[in-house]
Amino acid sequence: MNYKLSINKEKTSAFSALKKLLPYLDGERIQLIISFVAIIVNSGLLLLAPLMIGHAINTYILPKQYNGLVHYSGLVLLLYIGAVIANYVQSKTMGGVGQRLLFTLRNTIFDKLQVLPIAFFNQNKAGDLISRINSDTDNLNSFFSQSLMQFVGNVVVMVGATIFIIAIDWRVGLAAIIPLVIVLLITQALSPWVKSRNAKSLQEVGGMSAEIQESLGNFKAIVAFNRRDYFRQKFEEANYKNFITSIQAGIANNVFVAIYGFAASAAQLIVLLYGIHLILLGHFTIGFLISYLTYTSRLYDPLRQMASLWATFQTAMASWDRISAIVQLENDMPLIIESATTAPVSTRLSFQNVGFTYAEGKEVLRDVSISLQPGQTYALVGPTGGGKTTTASLMARLYDPTNGIILFEGRDIRTLSTIERAQKIGFILQEPFLFTGTVGENIFYANELYKDASASELALVLKNNELDDLMKQFENGLDTPVSQNGESISLGQRQLIAFMRAVLRKPDLIILDEATANIDTVTEALLELVIEKLPQQTTKVIIAHRLNTIQNADEIFFVNGGSVTPAGSLDRAVDMLMSAKRTS
């Protein structure tokens, strides 16, 4: 399956995007209602004030009856105080909604990443995924906590102002909203372009994060090979792309500001000229003209604000597209509930006409059929890139075959739960990953048998499994600190930890992918003794370039050119390997 994340080029409406967000706001219904009521109250009070001011001018100022003016001024002041209180309630409530949405979305994305297969991570850069979890969710938080209700409030004010100006005098009202209709049509036409510019900018931010992550994660190699210039150039290229797309997004986001500003000025001028004309004809009053000018401001000032709010909205929608691209993914390696047994139970693992092709179209295995028996040791040899690690990964169900079926103890391997599979199959990688913590925490990582064991009990477990000699490689034993990805200890020590982690599970099938490549010969001999102490029925699969490590294998398979062929003797395997190297 292709898990490559890319920009969504399909045109999606704002309504459909918001509809997909609603499930994440299920618990916020009361808060949203409170915010909506507060924004209605705030907008209503602000809309009443101009009408009262116009009435006061006509009733008290023009006739010079100033006694009632003080009373009206107090009422207008109370209106504005109420509007401020309502705005505070709305801002506080929606701030909480935004933060909780941020919390929920980040948990949702991370939980989704936990269930996606390894193929997903092979096809997408870690920096871009981090950008989606951090930056894109924060964009949505900013929109919901700051912009959404302001956006709704502006819409309410604009609708209310339109109603008021038409109700007072429909002729002036229609003249005032002509520019509004024009800019709304322009907004509708330009919105997809603005969204696409923001989506491209966000993608380049993720790309730049990926370059930073790759450079910092491999800084030792950069220094060792003196390639600072190479990575500096790559970063400059990524930064330049981000710079260009940011400028393009900035231009797109600000294009509405000038359009809306021009529309507001045009509307003010139309109302002023038409209002003066009606006053000269005796059909209008100065007080209502001032009210009209104020309502025109109430109509178009929110429109100016919405120019920036609309840009924020488009950025949020572009971010949601990037987030939903992850959320809507489904694991193509499901757990099969039932499966017919089609192989003898005595067989540990078998491939039946198995083929495998990577998402980019590279075929690695073709119609492979092999069987592994309990208690036997098997070796996989072949040239680099021949498919040894892929074959082992299929055995551990890190991938599912493109064709055929893999059976584990007579069962479709897809029927094994993740817990059962981790317990029955041990996989020691050539470059093992360690978590920040201690050596002990990494050795007993996710091992349910020892999750409540004390330090002394864990030490006894290692001794009983004859692993205590290996622990001498660590200065502070189980308490030896491990930094991020194990950088504080040697690669050989990391492989020892991975080895002990797998062995302590006593798996039915253990796969060693160059597991002793960075270990000295003395330690390697200790590891061989430990392997011999595994249960007699444990099946062992060894991938090794050093042929002396597989000389005692019960059967050797040669992996190359899409096939897995029994090689027979070690000498025959060597001949096949040399022949493959000569023809490559």
What's the CATH superfamily of the largest domain, by name? ABC transporter type 1, transmembrane domain
Helix run count: 17
The CATH first-level class of the largest domain comes to Mainly Alpha
Structural class: alpha/beta
- Give the strand content: 5-15%
Which runs of at least 5 residues are low in confidence (pLDDT < 50)? none
Query: Would you identify the CATH architecture of the largest domain?
Result: Up-down Bundle
Strand order of the largest sheet: 6-9-10-3-11-12
Oligomer: single chain
| H-E string | HHHHHHHHHEEEHEEHEEHHHEHEHEEEH
Which fold name fills CATH's third level, the topology of the largest domain? ABC transporter transmembrane region fold
Q: Short summary of the structure?
A:
The protein is built from 17 helices and twelve strands. The chain has helices spanning 14-21, 29-61, 67-115, 118-123, 126-168, 170-217, 219-224, 228-280, 286-327, 388-395, 418-424, 439-443, 455-464, 468-471, 491-503, 521-532, 570-583; strands spanning 349-357, 363-372, 377-381, 403-408, 411-412, 425-428, 437-438, 481-482, 509-513, 539-543, 555-560, 563-566. It has a six-stranded mixed sheet with strand order 6-9-10-3-11-12, with helices on both faces. Strands 2-1-4-5 form a four-stranded antiparallel sheet, covered by helices on one side.
